[in-house]
Amino acid sequence: MKKILFIDRYQFGYTTDTLKYCEHLNQQYKIRYVSFDLGWKKIKIPNVNTIYVPRYGNIVIRAVLFLIYAIVNCLFFDGAIFILYFPKCSLLKRILFWKKMHIDIRTLAVNTNLEERASINKQIQKDIAVFDSASFITQGVKEQISWSGKKYFILPLGADILSHTNKTFDELNLLYVGTLANRNIIDTVKGYENFTKLHPEIKSHYDIIGDSSGNELQELRQYVNEKGLNEHITLHGRLPYTALSTFFDSHNIGISYVPITDYYDHQPPTKTYEYILSGLVCVATSTYSNKKIITPTNGILHQDNAASFQNALETMLKNKEQYDSQLIRESLHKYQWENIIKESFLPIINSI
């Protein structure tokens, strides 16, 4: 049986992409997964050997400990080694220079500070240069990082079908799922507020699921309370992934709101895929990545401000009869995880 070793600083089961790789391939491959133990609930998958690195001491001690675990596991491993990028990961390849290793980049820096972004991206570029091959979430990310190696792959996001119900549009039920950090979700709240004022005859509701390490959730709650919007908007905070299917069943509009900036432009939001594959109409900001996904069949694009979001809802209301959940799902059929794994992930593993 073929073998795969994943090296990931994030706790196993909480990186969606590799979780799906393990779920789909655990009967065909012997999988070993080295990750930090971040103290979260441990996820178990049959035939996946999870090795947890304890988070002892300060940041330097933890980094050294993780590197030691990674080196030991790579040294005696005789299968494909797949590393999810982490700062200074190049040390692993420089020490074990004779071992063939693949590096995967899911995201570049998204800091709002230009100098910080440039510094982080320069470090990524330097780190990944030593690896035998690399994969990138989009072609745009690959071009931004200026990969100097000859062998690279595009490994796109995938998504599950979280709902099989066919949506109706007598009511407009909006759903946002994702982080609140640096997303300016307040813009969507203000746009929706204005929409409801203009259309009191339309029954609608907006559910927002997510949180951040900052004050965004608190600020949203304060705004909703001050404006008396509790009848129309519910802020749930963070919910487990297992709780989402109920929302995907009952809602018909998915909100994919990412600021239109150069550092978000090539970062495809996971929820754009999940909304569409679950038959929801996706109302999304017009980033480069969203423009590659959104079509008249499955959604509406708009600018990153409250007025444009409101206009998108007006367009949705006007054209609501034209949407069909089955056609919406079919528009992104190739992005289901089983297809991503077969067409994009396994060719990487077979090349290592």
Structure notes:
It is a single chain. With 352 residues, the chain is α/β, with parallel strands linked by helices. It has 2 domains: 2-158 and 336-351, Glycogen Phosphorylase B (Rossmann fold), CATH 3.40.50.2000; 172-334, Rossmann fold, CATH 3.40.50.2000. Helix content is 38%, strand content 19%. The chain contains 13 helices and 13 strands. The strands form 2 sheets. The chain has a 7-stranded parallel beta sheet, with helices on both faces. Strand 5, helix 4 and strand 6 (133-136) form a beta-alpha-beta unit. Helix 6 (186-198) packs across helix 11. It starts with a strand and ends with a helix. The mean pLDDT is 93.
Produce the secondary structure layout.
Layout: E1 2-8, H1 16-25, E2 29-36, E3 48-53, H2 59-75, E4 80-84, H3 90-95, E5 102-105, H4 114-128, E6 133-136, H5 139-145, E7 152-154, E8 172-177, H6 186-198, E9 204-209, H7 216-226, E10 233-237, H8 244-250, E11 253-256, H9 270-277, E12 281-285, H10 288-291, E13 299-302, H11 306-318, H12 325-330, H13 337-351
Parallel strand pairs: 1-2, 1-4, 2-3, 4-5, 5-6, 6-7, 8-9, 8-11, 9-10, 11-12, 12-13
Task: List the keywords.
352 residues, alpha/beta, Rossmann fold, seven-stranded parallel beta sheet, six-stranded parallel beta sheet, 13 helices, 13 strands, globular
Short description:
The chain has 352 residues and is an alpha/beta fold.
Segments where pLDDT lies below 50 for 5+ residues?
none
Largest sheet: 7 strands, parallel
Number of strands: 13
Percent helix:
25-40%
Total individual domains: 2
Distance between the termini: 15 Å
Which whole number gives the mean pLDDT? 93
Taking all Cα atoms into account, the compactness measure Rg is 21 Å
Q: In what order do the strands lie side by side in the largest sheet?
A: 3-2-1-4-5-6-7
The CATH homologous superfamily of the largest domain is called: Glycogen Phosphorylase B
How much of the sequence lies in strands comes to 15-25%
The CATH topology annotation of the largest domain reads as Rossmann fold
CATH architecture of the largest domain: 3-Layer(aba) Sandwich
Q: Label the overall shape.
A: globular
> Helical stretch count?
13
Structural class: alpha/beta
Q: What is the CATH first-level class name of the largest domain? A: Alpha Beta
Transmembrane segments: 64-86
GO molecular function: glycosyltransferase activity
InterPro entries: Glyco_trans_1 (IPR001296)
Organism: Phocaeicola massiliensis B84634 = Timone 84634 = DSM 17679 = JCM 13223
